[in-house]
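job 3f2a | input accepted
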Amino acid sequence: MTAIRASFIDDETLPPIFPLIDTHTHFDAPVFDSDRSEQAHLAYDQGIRHLVLVGYLHRHFDRLYETEKLLNKGLLLNEELPAIIGKDDNQKQSLPKAHIALGLHPFYIEQHTEAHLEKMAQMLNDKRPLAIGEIGLDSFTDVMKQPEMIAKQQRFFNAQLDMAVAHQLPVMLHIRKAHAEALALLKAHAYDAHKLGGIAHSFSGGMQEAKAFAKLGFKLGVTGQITNPNAKKLRLAIQAAVDSYGIECLVIETDCPDMTPIMCQTSDNTLDSTLYGNASALGQSPDNEWGDTPAHNRNVPANLSYVLLTLSELLEVQPSTLAQQLWHNSCTALQMKWRYPT
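job 3f2a | predicted structure (342 res):
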């Protein structure tokens, strides 16, 4: 198995292809530097037509724009494409369109400063992104539960919601072990997801929380976690939200290099809780956020089809029907009018 296909299962079992939007990626991360071109072409071959590069630290904002430029102008760092891709007279047309979300992630709250908020506000004026994110509340660790940490997270969350309202932009929420607190804050804020859109990224709450976010107008972001048969709480939450609000309340995402679908993992321990619990490569270490991502289990945008097919089975909706609805849901959540490819 080549390095390029290392994040896939065997070619014979690749899923059918439908046009898809990957609503949440960290495809700008260094873990993709060696083969970003190949993975972008493979993603396009698997139906990915748009992907969102999502921010989390101010120091990486410029990297987002650099990656967006390389993708959208067909100028990716790798000059040589592998034989499985072949020659293409118009390589630009065989790459997904990249978009940017800017945000200061709550897990890294210790690293964020008021100056970062000010610089982010200026970037919104100079380089309008597609969305603001990922932003929110995170009390996953004991340190994050400390009152001063919670207070700072809430302040930064509110400030970034203010920016979203001022610029009329949708937000991408990161909520981990803090769903009740986040819901209370959102209900008290002027941000209206019914008008501005928005996504509860990598949703991890229960049934009541799922319905509560959907009621507020947020789409629930479904990742490769859904492919784990042991993720019973998540599956029940997604089913409950759909029962109340229809499949219109969902979008799908890879959150790559995190949340690798279970059928795409190659390690012996495919049910590793670090991939299917509340942890992630992004949240392992504030000092080295990508250093421990295992290359053989790295998620890639092309794996999004497995999320679609698992969700199709779970909800008993035909993949073709679900894919088209998810496309329209993503457009609604991101306030875009991308035409569904036919």
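job 3f2a | The chain has one domain: 11-334.
job 3f2a | closed
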